[in-house]
Amino acid sequence: MFNWAKQTLANVVGTEEPIYGPSAIRSVAEDAKTTPYTELTRDDMKWEAMESTCVESQTFYFMADSGHLAFAQVIYSNVVGIRTTCQFNCKIFYTDGSKPLWSSSPLSHAEFSEDKTCFFATDCAVELSPDGNSYTIKSMNDPQCIVNLKITKVAPGFVVGKNGKTLFGTDLSHPWGSMRHAFWPRCSAEGSVMTKNGPIDFKGKAFLSHALQGMKPHHLAARWNFLNYQGPTYSAILMEFTTPPSYGTTVVDVGGIAKDGEIVIAGPNCGAKHLKTKQDTENDWPEPTDIKFTWSGTTKDGKPVEAVIECAMGERVDRIDVMAEVPGFVKKIVANAAGTKPYIYQFFPHNIPTVLKLKIGDQEITEEGRLFSEATFISATE
């Protein structure tokens, strides 16, 4: 009961958590020992819309045939059941290296469809089709960034394990928090984003991540690595988080390899390693310059699979100070109390070939594709 009280206090005021240790987390990798992954049905795409502290998001990544990259995102946030906010974000990265277009709009009158598979707000809608195979994403909240996009699955969606959830708490039969990621790893895209310079056609490839952080995000994870690779034949995706010391600095990985019509492998046996870094003089985080991503597993017919992407990231396309818009005194309090200093480094090395090396049984495959990656630092892991 005392641990629960301390956890509740930490959730409400953002204080640093006590050290519970690795016994207070049950990684989704435990489920994956018997069920490496589960293919998603339409019902699995429901929003949780929790009434307790959470951050839930659907993020759609677009790699246009023209070379541009974008993501569109709905974020649903609840602070201890007191206040709920919703935001629609869109970001476009240009191939000429010019400054990305960033649009972020608070949403009003947010609601979900009766079955919680669709999201609606004033001048915004993210709708799952009746057959569960496509999403339409529309927003007119920002006249400088009018979104009208559609993605359609060309490979099955999946969660790692039975339901994709990593659980947190000293009594894991009644967890006080959770983390879940559901993916559509390989999709086709169509539609456009209207900007002040005219429309941008996003016909090409796409990827969807539906994420639920069922607790204060900086209590769940201290660091993140993310990869979205889309190639002519294969897609490779990876999401990795490392918990703060309060949960034993535990590393949890989820990811997979897909191609048209099938998942090649999916599960927790993947990871990201920063091979080279450079110190960011503004915040002392070790910005990665070279990263190695790996996957391993077994196909449904029993063939062993190994995959690797190892590449230089090139110059980052953006560095985001997550708390940039928070008043200075609040930032200082949060940094001192919870040890948070969140920055996201984004990479889109469109001028550097990204090579996926894949071995399926005795077959060796090499292909060049396109990569978008993020490295996020939130708090110290020691």
From TrEMBL:
Residues 55-213 form the Svf1-like N-terminal domain. GO terms for biological process: response to oxidative stress. It is found in: Cytoplasm. Residues 215-379 form the Svf1-like C-terminal domain. The keyword Cytoplasm applies. Pfam families: Svf1 (PF08622), Svf1_C (PF17187). It comes from the Eukaryota. Keywords: Cytoplasm. GO terms for cellular component: cytoplasm. PANTHER family: CERAMIDE-BINDING PROTEIN SVF1-RELATED, SVF1-LIKE PROTEIN YDR222W-RELATED. Belongs to the SVF1 family. This is Cell survival pathways protein. It comes from Daldinia eschscholtzii.
